[in-house]
């Protein structure tokens, strides 16, 4: 765990966000040694933050105990140098269990993934994410995907929720994102709510997202070719 709040650390990042792959052995169990080496290599290469046990990290395939051990391993390997954010998903009750396990393991924050295979209305989504944010003392980033698409009004409500610090977009609807960013700025002009480009090919859409003020992005490329991902990030900033 880092000493500064997650939101403050993420506002100052100068590199791609690293989503490590969770390694499994031939017997189907998590190989923590390989996972540790992967996290350590990415941290040493220059990742701005580690998002452990999220989508790329096979969250859906992890038991609660495997999840806790993997998050703890990521926290140990980063040793406070960069923030560690852990995934949390499924239905509300299960998501709360994973969130609390992440907090116990020393994570700095949560990436709140959409409820599994459920399409909810705006009130249901708001209730789910506010309950998850209230369950721990961790700062939470909400993840927008195909089955969890938010209206600008709902994101304004999320931005007003204690503990929710940002929105990661995995949908790719730039018109919607522009309206979301504008709505939050209108209703909360002094709020530094964070936004993330969360598309699998974030490098390809980096300029488009920057056009609406979104500079943070998750890099799938970093997980297997960090040198390329870092070179791209430098070029994007130049």
UniProtKB/TrEMBL annotation:
SMART domains with a match to the protein in the record: DHDPS (SM01130)
Any matching Pfam family: DHDPS
Keywords assigned: Lyase
GO MF term list: 4-hydroxy-tetrahydrodipicolinate synthase activity; 5-dehydro-4-deoxyglucarate dehydratase activity
Domain of life where this protein originates: Bacteria
EC number: 4.2.1.41
Protein name: 5-dehydro-4-deoxyglucarate dehydratase
């Amino acid at each position: 765990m880092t000493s500064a709040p997650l939101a403050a650390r993420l506002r100052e990042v100068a590199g791609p966000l690293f989503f490590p792959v969770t390694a499994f052995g031939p017997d189907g169990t998590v190989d923590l040694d390989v996972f540790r080496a992967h996290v350590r290599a990415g941290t040493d290469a220059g990742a701005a933050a580690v998002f452990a046990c999220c989508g790329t990290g096979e969250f859906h395939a992890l038991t609660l105990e495997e999840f806790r051990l993997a998050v703890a391993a990521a926290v140990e390997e980063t040793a406070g140098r960069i923030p560690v954010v852990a995934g949390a998903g499924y239905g509300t009750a299960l998501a709360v269990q994973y969130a609390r396990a992440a907090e116990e393991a020393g994570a700095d924050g949560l990436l709140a993934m959409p409820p599994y295979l459920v399409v909810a209305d705006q009130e249901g989504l708001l209730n789910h994410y506010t309950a998850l944010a209230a369950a721990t003392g961790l700062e939470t980033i909400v993840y927008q995907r195909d089955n969890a698409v938010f209206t600008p009004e709902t994101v304004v409500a999320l931005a007003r929720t204690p503990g929710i610090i940002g929105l990661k977009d995995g949908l790719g609807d730039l018109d919607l994102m522009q309206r979301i960013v504008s709505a939050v700025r209108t209703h909360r002009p002094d709020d530094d709510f964070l936004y993330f480009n969360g598309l699998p090919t974030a490098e390809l859409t980096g300029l488009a997202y920057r056009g609406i003020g979104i500079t943070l992005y998750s890099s799938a490329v970093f997980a297997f070719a960090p040198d390329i991902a870092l070179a791209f990030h430098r070029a994007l900033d130049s």
